[in-house]
Design goal:
single chain; about 525 residues; mainly beta; Immunoglobulin-like; twelve-stranded mixed β-sheet; five-stranded mixed β-sheet; elongated
Length: about 525
């Protein structure tokens, strides 16, 4: 009886230690190349914990099993910086009783494998999941379910590092918004990787079992959602949740190596990740405000009331920062347009460039211009829908309002050169008649190449009086659709589609040089 009670106390202690775990992932990295020890591996374990549970310890264990050698226990040590709430967990939702607050713990261990083998498994098991989970075990809310996740290795034909998860494992979402959630990994060996969704698991290797989903949910549809997809090539999860709930799901990454002798892809390893996510009924007000220019970075202009930033004359690009991270998949080269307020003409933007992080998110973009700023004054940069049919979208699925505007002030342009005497004045003094100067060019802003002999050609008035005549026409993506360094008023629009195009006309006559920027609307 005493032995039975002791066993119960040990079991209760184990369950108490691991209670309220919310997921985790496991990976391995071959380090024998740098240590000089064959089959020397670094093991990486991350565990996610609901803060309402008991804190994790400073050590843990991972087991290595195979058909070639006895089980190996790998001691794992907690790393610095562990045990903190993910800093971006509440970017989209506010912490409430219906949204789990999760911490991430990271452990590192090292192992020297005794031999090569085709079926090596690094695995971790613990208990228990917190109560209140929606999509598994309705009867107990998930409170009695445990954890099992693993990473497999086939080093029979050479050592390998598993795919290493680098994207954010802990997220909270809200009902009614579309989300893109990247499951990014690093693959050090150049192997091919494939992502898929699997059941969450529990138990010990080799007798681990799948945890069944309740009716209405499955491994491929773990969230009540209008759609739920994972890209097998990138690990991008796309979904639109439609119900407030707390759900679990699991991602498997399989890697394959090309056999140059037998000419086939063979499995070399895997990694897996078990996650719990909260779906709140609404996003927080900051997220729901959509994409906003960062008010801490850009003051308001006293005349227009718009946020503004200064750009130096001659610059060809400038950055724009936002108050919350953007969904990198929403960034398009024509998400913005620019107007020169002095001329009321558009300025051509070549590209909207962004440096996204491992979650494919960024809080800023860089606007690349077709030509350097050459005129001091104010320019309006305003949002438009791009080729994807959207404006910029923040990480919480809320778009930027179309025509939201920031004032770009171009400063520090050099003053125009003073007028210089021209030849005809001197020639008149010597009794030599002056040569006539060319008339200013007049550039049309509409072209209708439909064969009716009216505006069928792009004719620039007075152009032929100039000696050098270079014409460049670009589309709204900054791609050149027409170029001629001796233009003769003979462009018929070619095969370009109807729309607005931007152009630069460079002309010269003796010492006179002009650069003209314009736009033209082509309508057939």
């Amino acid at each position: 009886m005493k032995r039975f009670l002791t066993s119960l106390l040990i079991l209760a202690s184990f369950a108490s230690f691991g209670s309220h775990l919310a997921g985790g992932d496991i990976q391995y990295k071959y380090i024998g190349d740098s240590t000089g020890v064959n089959r020397h591996y670094k093991v990486i374990l991350r565990v996610y914990r609901d803060v309402s549970g008991i804190a994790m310890g400073t050590t843990d264990n991972v087991t290595v099993s195979s058909g070639c050698f006895a089980n190996i226990n790998v001691p794992m040590t907690l790393t610095a910086g562990s045990g903190v709430v993910s800093p971006t967990l509440f970017d989209c939702v506010n912490p409430t009783s219906s949204v789990k607050t999760l911490e991430v713990y990271r452990y590192i261990g090292y192992v020297i494998l005794p031999s090569n083998c085709s079926d090596i498994t690094f695995w971790y098991s613990n208990c228990c999941r917190p109560p209140g989970i929606t999509n598994i075990n309705t009867s107990n809310g998930g409170g009695n379910d445990g954890f099992y996740f693993d990473a497999k290795l086939n080093n029979a034909q050479g050592q390998n590092s598993s795919p290493i998860f680098v994207s954010e494992p802990v997220r909270a979402f809200c009902v009614g918004n579309s989300f893109n959630w990247k499951q990014s990994t690093i693959e050090y060996d150049g192997d091919s990787v494939v992502y898929s969704l699997i059941n969450c698991r529990e138990g010990n290797y080799p007798n681990q079992t799948d945890i069944p989903f309740d009716a209405g949910w499955s491994k491929n549809q773990p969230v009540t959602s209008a759609y739920f997809n994972i890209d097998p090539n990138t690990g991008l999860i796309s979904f639109l949740p439609t119900n407030q709930e707390i759900d679990v799901l699991s991602v498997l990454v399989e890697e394959y190596r090309w056999d140059t002798i037998n000419l086939w892809w063979y499995p070399i390893g895997t990694a897996s990740r078990d996650m719990m996510i909260s779906i709140a009924s609404t996003c927080n007000p900051i997220a729901m405000s959509g994409v906003q220019f960062d008010s801490n970075t850009y003051p308001l202009d006293s005349i227009t009331g718009l946020p503004y930033k200064e750009v130096q004359c001659g610059d060809t690009a400038f950055g724009i920062k936002f108050h919350i991270a953007l969904d990198g998949y929403s960034i398009n080269d024509i998400d913005f347009r620019m107007t020169n307020t002095m001329t009321s003409q558009p300025e051509a933007i070549t590209k909207i460039w962004s440096d996204v992080d491992v979650n494919y998110e960024t809080d800023s973009v860089r606007v690349v211009m077709f030509a350097p700023f050459s005129q001091e004054g104010n320019y309006y940069l305003y949002s438009k829908k791009g080729n994807d049919g959207n404006t910029l979208i923040n990480k919480c699925g809320i778009p930027m309002n179309e025509f939201d505007t920031i004032l770009v002030k171009v400063v520090n342009c050099p003053p125009p050169p003073p007028p210089t005497p021209i030849g005809p004045i001197d020639q008149e003094l010597e009794g030599i008649p002056p040569s006539p100067l060319p008339q200013p060019v007049v550039i049309p802003n509409v072209m209708t190449p439909n064969g009716d002999n009216k505006n069928d050609l792009f004719v620039i008035k007075n152009l032929m009086e100039w000696e050098y005549k270079e014409l460049i026409i670009v589309n709204r993506w900054g791609q050149v659709v027409y170029y001629n360094n001796d233009y003769k008023n003979d462009w018929d629009g070619g095969s370009v589609s109807d729309g607005v195009y931007f152009g630069v006309l460079n002309i010269s006559y003796k010492d006179m040089i002009e650069e003209n920027h314009f736009d033209v609307t082509i309508t057939r």
